[in-house]
Amino acid sequence: KEPKGGKEKNNVKLDSDMDKIKLVVYNEYALGYIMPEQPGKVCTLVDRITLGAPFRTMNEPYFIGKRDTVRLAGRKDFDTFRIVFDGYDNPEIYEYDTAQ
Fold first, then answer.
1. Pairing label, strands 41-47, 30-34
2. Can you tell me the distance from the alpha carbon of 29 to that of 92, in angstroms, rounded to the nearest whole number?
3. Tens of pLDDT, residues 16-62
4. Which of 19, 44, 16 is nearest to 30 (CA)?
5. Which of 6, 37, 79, 91 has the fewest CB atoms within 10 Å, i.e. the most exposed one?
6. Cβ within 8 Å of residue 55, ≥6 positions away
7. DSSP alpha helix (H) spans, the chain
8. What's the rounded Cα separation, in Å, for the pair 26 and 42?
9. Rounded alpha-carbon distances, angstroms, from residue 28 to 9, 13, 38, 91, 92
């Protein structure tokens, strides 16, 4: 199924901001993204044990619980986690904190 009335950019159709991939910081120790169809799961781009992340051998997703904090990530967070932001700098596809 293709959404009706959406914007087309790089062969990805989006109806609204709700359909954007959210770039987030999870519990201040992980940088990841939330897919619109799975709002309770943070897919990990990178996490840091030095910032409090549990030791894991693979980048499994984090599932958002009642005590977890999740906020939109910004350019500054990508610097903190040492990830290049350039590939994510596309407001048509990604939602992120533009104030940072």
1. antiparallel
2. 26
3. 556 999 999 999 999 999 999 999 999 999 999 989 988 887 878 99
4. 44
5. 37
6. 49
7. 75-80
8. 7
9. 31, 31, 20, 23, 25
